[in-house]
Amino acid sequence: MHTRLPVTIDPFQLASKGERLEGPIAIKTLTRLAPSLRDTTGEIQVTLEFGLDELRQPMVQGSLSGSLTMMCQRCLEPMVQDIDSRFLLGLVKNEYQMNRLSEEYEPLLVTESPIALASIIEDEILLSLPIVATHAPGDCRLVVAATGMDSVEVDTETKPNPFAVLKSLKKT
Ligand SMILES: [Zn+2]
Question: Would you say residue 120 has pLDDT above 70?
Fold first, then answer.
């Protein structure tokens, strides 16, 4: 099925109609992620199910899947970060509604409508990303380099400080 996600949405209207949006979103349109990304090609698969709960609270249940090419904060080489995120948002129009929102929901404050769909996706991806993105220990080039040095016969007193490696990397 080829569905295209709208660029902007009216979340309250979608919730009252019980609409479902599904489709890919281009990573290059998620501009707030750009500083963390090494490569902006590709797509994230998005599913958003809008509706009202039994208390007629407008909500959206969503899932995101795909992968982002980020930069490993240890070795500065590209790394693939899988995105597999599920979320349940309660739609609110102001702080009063936000404070009354049931705890099962993460609030989505909608002060103007329509809103950019990409902004909701960006928020959820940013929340799901690790604070410091690094390769898994076995995959990181820096760990490989440090292991290589350990195998060289050096007496422990002159063994290079691992932070010296970091310093030399930063200069290049
Ligand atoms: Zn790495």
Answer: yes
Distance (angstroms) between ligand 1 centre and the Cα of 138 equals: 9
Residue 70: predicted pLDDT = 94
- C-alpha 122 to ligand 1 mean position (Å): 24
pTM of the full structure? 0.78
Q: How far is the CA of 165 from the centre of ligand 1 (A)?
A: 13
Distance CA 155, CA 172 (A): 28
pLDDT of 146 above 60: no
Structure tokens at 90: 């309660």
Tell me how far the alpha carbon of residue 142 lies from the centroid of ligand 1, in angstroms: 6
Dihedral, 114, 6, 125, 80 alpha carbons, nearest 10 = -160
Where are the extended beta strands (E) located within the chain?
8-9, 20-26, 37-39, 43-52, 58-71, 78-92, 106-109, 115-116
Q: 168 C-alpha to center of ligand 1: Å? A: 16
CA distances from 139 to 77, 144, 150 (A): 11, 8, 17
Tell how far the Cα of 68 is from the centroid of ligand 1, in angstroms.
Answer: 15
